[in-house]
Amino acid sequence: MPSLSPPVAPPLSPTSQTPWKRNWFSQKSVRKGARPKKKESRMIFKDGKKNVLGHRIMKQKLSYIKDIFTTLIELDWKYVVLGFPTVFIASWLLFAGIWYLLGWRNQDFVEERIKGNNYEPCVMNVHDFRGALLFSIETQHTIGYGYRYITSTCPTAVTFFTVQSIFGALMQALIVGIVFAKISMPKRRAHTLMFSKNAVISMRDGALTLLFRVGDMRRAFILSAHCRLSMICSKFTSEGEEIPMHQYELDVGYEQGLDRLFLVWPTIIEHKIDNRSPLYTVSAESLQHEQFELMALVEGVTQSTGLTTQARTSYLPSEIMWGHRFLQLRGLSRGVGRVVIDFSLFNFTVEDGSPKCSAQELAAGKIEREVNEKKKENAKKRVTFRRRCSSVPAPDG
């Protein structure tokens, strides 16, 4: 009886010696007081985040500033929560200083002039910086308590009053737009899409097949969901050029429509390892010596918002389990007309005794067996034919 095995990745193996692949996905990390240890890096983290950083990009900061709205949306929440109040307070203090300078220039803070009969300041009831700050806040957010108000004595004050009103409206619209965009970002929906921690290679329908599982936590549908699987590794062209990070598209059933998913229940994605697959020559023994990264992607439209969402993950050779298959998830009936899927076994696998040879060796063995069987069949036919010929009586002379 097969034993359950938790999805624990097998240990890392030495660097690949395959001539057409180089070690682009490993780096050495040395900690103080510890022995040097190899640490595998990846371009896509398990949670789908990008692990590729650009270096020495010309005019990078200028490009980010030109696309300021996208830059602000992509900021972490901690910077948003701290940054927006800081911007508001800075704008209040800036315009409060301007109002205070206007009052000082107009001599609104001189007591002799305040007591005069013809006294009319730029802003009524603003006698110090605190009053200017309160007037700045009331103006920018159109509070309008009525105690502090502008007069027609200073044309400059009317100009700054207009500028601050427009600036306050733009600031509020920008902040509301950024917060709404961050809340409704489709990548938040991608957090509820699950990938299995490990991929497996197993025999399915008479062929070695790469398998991984995808599931959705929410009850709402992902519309038009489809899956892609890519392999990143180095490649040498026929001219001798080395492409360090070449992308191979792995077939997950595009022609049969198997890449289009209906995620009502967890689904197992299949890639048949045939002569078109870059894994065709990989065996169980050589797998841990290979240097590549498999990137899985599920994309669809969120039913509740209508926005396109995309969930990603990646698998290194150390996270691919050879000779295992996923444990089937059973539906548990509760009540009338309801099926409950047990996700506690989502990542569990069982050993299935698949052959450890590569798909190429497996295909060559099948061809050899077919040739031998054909030879045996032809030999039997020749023996039968001879027996029939020997049993036929010779004609009378």
Written description of the protein model:
By secondary structure, the protein is of the alpha+beta class. Helices cover 32% and strands 23% of the residues. The strands form 5 sheets. Strands 4, 5, 6, 9 and 12 form a 5-stranded mixed sheet that branches. Strands 8-7-10-11 form a 4-stranded antiparallel sheet. Strands 1-16-13 form a 3-stranded antiparallel sheet, with no helix packed on it. It is elongated and about 150 Å long.
List the SSEs and their pairings:
Layout: E1 4-5, E2 26-29, E3 37-40, H1 60-66, H2 68-73, H3 77-105, H4 111-114, H5 129-140, H6 155-183, H7 186-190, E4 193-195, E5 199-204, E6 207-216, E7 222-236, E8 242-250, E9 267-272, H8 284-287, E10 293-302, E11 308-315, E12 320-322, E13 324-326, E14 331-333, E15 339-341, E16 349-351, H9 359-391
Parallel strand pairs: 5-12
Antiparallel strand pairs: 1-16, 2-3, 4-6, 5-6, 6-9, 7-8, 7-10, 10-11, 13-16, 14-15
Helix pairs in contact: 3-5, 3-6
Helix content: 25-40%
Which regions have little confidence, pLDDT < 50, spanning 5+ residues? 1-37
Element order: H for helix, E for strand: EEEHHHHHHHEEEEEEHEEEEEEEH
Roughly how many Å apart are the termini? 72 Å
Quick check: average pLDDT? 80
Classify the oligomer: single chain
* Overall spatial form: elongated
**Extended strand count:** 16
Largest sheet: 5 strands, mixed
Alpha plus pi helix count: 9
Beta fraction: 15-25%
Query: What structural class is derived from the secondary structure elements?
Result: alpha+beta
Give the radius of gyration.
Answer: 36 Å
